[in-house]
Batch of 4 targets.
Target 1
Amino acid sequence: MNYRLLALPALLALTSAAANSPYIHKVYEFVPAPGQFVNELPEYEPGDTYSSMLAKAQEALAGDRTPGAVSLGAFGGYVVFGFDHPVVNEPGSPDFKIYGNAIISDRDSRGGSSEPGVIWVSADVNGNGLPDDPWYELAGSESSRSTRDFSVTYRRPDPSHTPTPHPGDRHVTDTSYLPWEASDGTTGFLSANDYHQQSYWPEWETASEITFTGTRVPDNAMDLNGDGTYFLMFSYPWGYADNLPNREETGFDIGNAIDAGGNAVFLPAIDFVKVATGLHQQCLSLGESSTEVCGAEDLHPDAASVRSVSAMASLSARIDGNTLNVFNGRAEAVEAVVISLGGTVVADLHLPCGASAHVLPPMSAGVYVLAAPGAEPVKLVYLR
């Protein structure tokens, strides 16, 4: 059964058969934290600005399955992208993939170079085409062990600083290279190594310090030899970017979206995806753990277009069979009425906060309207 949820003027799109691209269409933001691959993926050139680096990130990620790569640096660094259409939340199945460069070690099948990135999604509720609506994290296997609202402030390296090489690892050229301070009161440094001799500070960033806030996942590195010569970064079971090899990644389900309190959120479709480095750890000469993104793919790009159109960014709905699934994001319950376009009342509903399901009487194909006090009507095009 197909369904659509969109603003009435867009009904004309029902007659269009233009194919949607399954791949990234636009990169909206590219804000890496400092790291050993920063200024390399993509490459910084003298004179580059935020805008020109954003264009390079666009070139690296858009238009194909895995066209290139960007590094998000240490904890909190992120990229925001979208497709040329909303990604539909197909119940019970993965909705999109994000490709990275994780590999499995020949020595231990439990992992290798897993650098999990936390995934966030957002719907363009206000309809302005920009990622300025509420973000919802996609829960992963480690959500119950993760630290939410974790912050790290990084400070630009002092050019007069005297390097302090690591006494036991000749590749670590400076153990006090780039200072950081975390919200849990800990402090430290990002180390520099001789594999990457460029600046680890994003060179287009003019500020002397930058702060990132997000969800920190548990450390996943183990020093297998006990002397820092062989680190294994374990893969988590599911739910993170750059966590599993691309051939093993089954995809990410919009149905796993949660709000700031960890409560499930029902999103009919999303327009924007954010990936942020979730680890705050270092592994000697391997450097800081940094999520890399190499592309993304909508797993059902030709599914019916679904969109929430509540002007209050608080009400979304979808019809599955004769069940109306609604998410009320406001702080209080609301009364609502589902009516046909012709004005015939189908059902009077009381919507509690959060997600709720309502069994409707048998419905014929047509346009239905979910009207609630204080919100723009949500129009549902129901195709039986």
Target 2
Amino acid sequence: MKKGIASLLVASMLVMSLGACGKKAEPTESSAQDAATNTEVETEAKAEEPQGELSEVDKIILEAEGMSMEELAKKAIEESNGKTFYGVGNSSRGKTALPLFIEYLQSIDPSYSMEYEWQQPKNNKIFEQLSADSLKDQGTFAMTLIQDGNQIESKMVQTGILKTFIPKEWAEANGTSAAEYNGFLPLQTLNKVFMYNTTGDVRFTNCWDFVAKDVHPLFMDIDSEIVGKNFLYMLTADKYATYLKDAYDALPEDKKAYFQPVIEEVKTDAEDLGLGENGAYALAWIKLWVENYNAQTDDGPICNTLVTDSATDQSGLLVYSKLRSVEESAGVSLNNINVAAYNDGYKGIGGYGYCHYLFVTDNSPLPWTACAFIAYMTCTEDGFSAWGKDMGGYSSNPEVAKAIEATYQHSKGGMNEAGEVVFDCKNDRGYDWWVNEGQLVLEDPEYCSSVAFTVGSWIEMLTKYSDAAK
């Protein structure tokens, strides 16, 4: 990559930064749930914001954040009884959670009734749909469940279209308060992990093995699922660039010799883009990944391919929960696949994690009901149960996460009734393991937004393997 190109990107970034907010651009960790969203805690209380700057929904959220689940439920019953609730989200399971929520409200008031409709826009159209709805004095959608922290930050939050509500019980379970917590409210963290077929002799023992010569991992194209691009952005953060550097240092000399020229090639770009001391390792890995991955349209087919006898030596980066739906048959077995990070001695990143976030729309027609529904999903096992059956999907509420594990026992998902391991790949090590031992790369919306133009433009100039192969 030529120095001039990266320099131009940096110059443009400096101009754009004049209008940007002055928050930090590096993810931090404090508690396990802070790590889920990689946000830092700020001490300035939301209650101290000038009241004149608050919308009517802001005022309701501020009041709702001091209420218990039952108090919110009573407000919801009063507001929405006999009405229709419209929600929109990236996950269709919001539609599964809504009738459970209605049953909960009916346990308080048996006469309560509410119709509902849940929409799931395709092809990332949710941002356009919410933007259009925001132009109305009173919107159609009461709330949303949405992913892609980068676009949420830049298109939805900075513009005031979406508002964050932090339930009292959720904050308490995470050892904080609504006033102290700064960041989006995650329903859950989902992980995509590196896997490979084991029917041949090839073993992947280092994250650099997935970008080695003639290795073409199956991966949802970054233009099809934008959170995949956020994964690449996050690799340039100091923490994850260091993971890549440490993994590189653990490689044998012959493998280092293959990667070293690429690292040298992008060093100037890393400097021009303002990355940290290990930024070149991040850019080199990104460059090799983009120029080598085999673009796919969905994680399901990737999983279905990797578990077959005929997928010898193939690999991929895909949603962990897809393994749950694999059925054993002739030529198909979960024993044909390994989760790379579970292997002893594996070095480097094991995958990446991104969140489903919950927001109230700023022109919500039913803001109290939206807050109650959000609290129900994040603070009760029943509310999270629509997502709870999936391994690799971790509630952001530690108390709910424990209850879900006790019910579904994902850590023993690959064992038989006698306690014997049948499919080790299905024994979920859990969120804490993935964040620490598994070196999961966690999406930080603020960091992604801060580098989306610079690093993002750099990535756009790379030639994809699928394009080069045509």
Target 3
Amino acid sequence: MRKDILISEAEMAAARAAAGRVKEEIAPLGLTYHIESYGCQMNDHDSEKLAGMLEEMGCTKAADKADAQVILFNTCCVREHAEQRVYGNIGALKKRKDENPGLLIGVCGCMMQQKAAGDKLFRRFPFVDMVFGTNELHRFPNIFESALHEERILAVRDIDGEIAEGLPVLRSGTFSTNVTIAYGCDNFCSYCIVPYVRGRERSRDSGAIVEEVRSVAAAGFKEVTLLGQNVNSYSGDDGVTDFPTLLRVVHDSVPDMNRIRFMTSHPKDLSPALMDAIAELPRVCKHIHLPVQSGSNRILRLMNRRYTRENYMDEVAELRRKVPDIELTTDIIVGFPGETEEDFQDTLDLIKQVGYSAAFTFMYSPRKGTAAASMAEQVPDEVKHDRLQRLNALQAEILKEGNLKYIGRTGEVLVEGCDRRAEPMAYGKLSNFKMVYFPGGEELIGSLRTVEITANQNNSLIGRLID
């Protein structure tokens, strides 16, 4: 890894020293914490690091938010709705803070990396104790120490941040977990705030990634998801290791990891070598999340996606040729500025042709600072709502039809949970992301089970245990 993108050992040592001082100071207090995480899996994983640092400092997780003496909001700014939820939840704590001045409240994450966002939040909510950005995560013990001594602190680093290795992580799952392989994004899609709040792309060394995957496998995790804003453009070890190579290295170096997933993939960077890796590596899941965003070439140009509808369809065809049992999921935005009914019909036509296993669909939400926010021809909300409804209805039909081919097949399911609303039904995913329900109880959670598919129900499959 380039040394200029690693947090210095001196800075990491200062954070560890602060954690030690805090632990000694709060030991008699028995502080409990609660973290609310908004947005993507990257944010969820950051919250696991915050939890790890809090535990290292002697705090314990609260049974309930109402009992917590430390409350952190790890924010997302990709969509306006998430921001409004955060503001509402922070405001709701004012009365509690007035009654208990010792309550520590912190706000961090992507929202705080927006220009002047921290200053504005401090003015709007003067009872908040600490505000820090995504690139200050490793300094949380220092920030927490200041807040503990009644010093309000605002810490937001320049956006092109560095990489901190070795942070403690309290993983929320027991059988499936995440490992970040790269931070930031260089794509600058015209609707997306991510490059402005998470910075330019930085890749971890492959050796550090392998060691982390090895450690979670040793801890009993059966599935790992390699995370990045765009995993396809991963360039580790000073640019020597690309993503297909990393997949092969992780697969071959950690044989105890049963399943390897990854997300998210940008279509413009999907290479034949990655398709080959998915096809050839048995423990790499036969699923790819490949956000198309729109089926209209005109809208794709306005979005600055740098591929065409035709490029995308060629990739889908090649994926299915090389990996016949692969399933695709996607993201789609409706109501992008200037989107006409004809453009929208192009999107509907594309999802019919591809036949997605799942589609995460959104109405376009303007994000201040992005190119699309100032574009002409903003689409009225009522048109967005109508298009979203029609898109979701079509996708539901496509999913139901696509599930029929699974009846009579067998596959291995990683059991995620148990639904007890009627007869106990265990549920989990096949390698290719298909959700399966079958008779079974909590004792199966976390295990890999062979299941025969017997029926199709709404957006999932029904099966029976055969091992």
Target 4
Amino acid sequence: MIWPLAGYTIGWLPAWVAIAVLAVEGIIRVVAIGVIPGGRRPSTAMAWLLGVFLIPVVALPLFIVLGTNRLSTRRRELQRLVNEELTALLADTDDGDLVLAHNRRLRATVDMNRRLGAFPMHLGNQLRLISDYEETFAWMVEAIDEAETYVHLLFYIISDDPDYAGPVWEALERATGRGVSVRVLYDHVGTAQTRGYRALRRRLARSGIEMAPSLPLRVTRRRPSRPDLRNHRKILVVDGRQALTGSTNLIEPHYRRRSAMRMGRRWVELNVVCTGPAVTALDLVFASDWFMETDDDLRDVVGAEIDPRRHERVQSAVQVLPSGPGFPDENNLRLFNDLIYRAVDRVVICTPYFVPDDSLLYSVTSAVKRGVEVTLVICQKADQVMIHHAQQSYLEELLEAGVRILRYPAPDVLHSKIVVVDRDILAIGSSNMDMRSFGQNGEVTMMVLDPEVVRATDEVLADYEARSDELDLERWRARPWYEKYLDNAFRLLSGLL
């Protein structure tokens, strides 16, 4: 028996209590089989059922608290109203017809994204990739020092240190000193577990910077907030004129982890800075999240920047796609699958966590079967044990299908998040390739149509490849049995990771 009291029919426990426990056990199992699969993908449902059957005293309370990706009723209604208002506001600003006149195969992709909550496709963007950690933070400081009106900053993790984040806070403090409005959003759970969080809050409280935690964790309310729904976006917007997004958090490259410092582990990131209409889209994503947390409507701040007709309709075409529990159709997963299915030449996926559902696994392996060259670039050792083993459980299947797998050497964490399709399409942003990023995390992705930007991305990927080890199928099959066991065991939980 698996329940703590089941089977104890002698001694101090009366027989009638044991019988009652067995009856409850049977009822809960039967109810779970009929309830848990409803509205969930089979892999997620099976993971929850496995937990409820094997460790019910742990899994059942967790399922009650975490078993759905839905936001609270209030947040869902606010998000619906915001999405509808943005759709109406931007209805006549789409440059898609101009862009897709020479790239018709993406017309359906752009239209699908719009229906799922993405912004219109806009020309007139200038993009630059930054792969150097120090350069990213130097750009932030320089951009903030140029601010005249406002700075909007949203990161999953914020922190303070003398060399990286510290200079950014100093620049923000200088900005407030000259009358610039500074608004800072950070994920509550992602940041609260970082060393120095309380000291940073005290510093910001003294600075005049407006700040708010995103999706704050509250356990004292009648209905506690969800600890697993997180805001994973990374956005910095200055004056509505220039912006940054990508994979970097506002934290030094060891992520303030003592273990990472001891082993020399650094996070390797890739970001994009931009001017043009994409800045407005990123700003509106921030404004939506800010409104959800503070009820402060920023339409008078960002509204003047909405019309893309003030931009020259040349340069990079960009569509910005927010995703997460406020967008119930897993629109980032749908975008990635759609792009992979449309690939005719090559697909390169770079992600720290590749734990796919069946749809993503099939799109990747189907691309190989139709002759597309598919390359997966991942970490040799992920920074999270369960995800590391779950990810490894898929590698043999991918290698057998013909996917080329490059593993960035440990101890570093390759944290860049990009998908390159053929020679002209790039998706870059904050989204990992796992179920958490597809359903539970607020993410933002930029779909870029520009061969020049793709060529710049290829240079970054070439550097990753030069440092990485290519995985060999026979060598991979020869790894120790206990490692295979752990991989397969954690794969059972992949729908929840």
